[in-house]
Amino acid sequence: MAVERPLQELPCLNENLEGSLLCMSQTKRKERPCYGEENTPHELIQHWSPPRKQPRPCGKGKENAFVLARRPRKSRDSAAGLCWDSLPDELLLGIFSRLSLQDLLRTSRVCKRWHRLAFDESLWHSVDLVGKAQLDAELGQVLTAGVLRLRSPHVCIGQPGFKNADLLRVQHMDLSSCTVQTSVLEDILSRCRRLQNLSLEGLILSDSILHSLAQNVELVRLNLCGCAGFSPESLAEMLQSCTQLEEVNMSWCDFSSQHVQAIATNVPSSVTQLNISGYRQNMTMEDVKNLVERCPNLTNLDLSDSVLVTTDSFPFLQQLSSLRHLALSRCYQIHPAALIHFEKFEKLQTLEVFGLIQDSYLPILSKGLPHIQINTQPFSSVARPTSATRKDRTLWGMHCRLVYKP
């Protein structure tokens, strides 16, 4: 049987277990330590936290020193105060450049500032006014706005109403078959010095207009098909001045034999495509010879409807080593059997002889000239702004951004 031992008195825990949880529980009632300072692991925080960035001294010796600063956040009140008037001109021009022609014109009526920006020349780079029946002051406003490309054929043009005598910036312009007075046309072309492509097909011109065209020394393509009203002297002057011409269409104009001679003896050697068809008794073999001598780099030549051109022209034409397209339609002095001689033209690609051969004889001729396509294009496209075979709204292959939509 176990013997019961008397209980022993334990020493005071306050003396031997100082700092223990038990001691803390006993002294808790007496005094409350500041746990915010006592339990905060300052050493661990300093060990794991990234070092604070110290501002670099911006002294005189360090030119590249800089201080990063956070931009103060704008309050909602200041953001709500933004309006169109606070936008810079560059941003507004970028917005206006996405607008159509009608919307841009409506925008110009909002205020004076928007009117000034809406007619900035950067927005009026190219304009297509096809479908607009009548043009008066609108044409003058468009031209003075700094337009570079203007497509406006088959339009009735009144008085443009230019407000000053400044020169125009237009470089490519199509006024074919427009209803316009010669005096108005003189006023427009007298302000042009930078024309590169121009079509005045079917218009009544004057010596003054030809003199104005002579001032455009950068002219590359010129379409005067069906024009009238100017002398051989003014025609010769214009051809002598425009030495960079490459494509010229002067077919079916109201020309005399003197006009044809002026072309044959003054056309610049830079011309590579020439349409001088429709002169029946006014073009001679001597004119053909002069054309070949002056323009040795011709690639496209149209001599159609010249009844004085005979097979004697073949040796002259054979001298054109770059000739690719030749039109001799309705040159009735050329016998159909003589067309087989074009087998000597090794680089010739197309031959237009409408009216010279019957459809039944065409397969026989095509077999004798296998490298040449015969009667593929009844209408010439030389210097014309839009080819007859194309239906898109182009201007010598270039599109216009601002398009009129009735």
Q: How would you summarize the topology of this molecule?
A:
Blueprint: H1 13-16, H2 21-27, H3 35-38, H4 42-48, H5 76-79, H6 89-96, H7 101-107, H8 112-118, E1 126-128, E2 134-135, H9 137-144, E3 149-151, E4 156-157, E5 172-174, H10 182-189, E6 197-199, H11 207-213, E7 221-223, H12 232-241, E8 247-249, H13 257-266, E9 273-275, H14 285-294, E10 300-302, H15 314-318, E11 325-327, E12 350-352, H16 362-368, E13 373-374, E14 402-403
Explain this structure to me?
The chain has helices spanning 13-16, 21-27, 35-38, 42-48, 76-79, 89-96, 101-107, 112-118, 137-144, 182-189, 207-213, 232-241, 257-266, 285-294, 314-318, 362-368; strands at residues 126-128, 134-135, 149-151, 156-157, 172-174, 197-199, 221-223, 247-249, 273-275, 300-302, 325-327, 350-352, 373-374, 402-403. It is built from 16 helices and 14 strands. The protein is an alpha/beta fold and 406 residues long. The chain is 28% helix and 9% strand. Strands 13-12-11-10-9-8-7-6-5-3-1-14 form a 12-stranded parallel β-sheet.
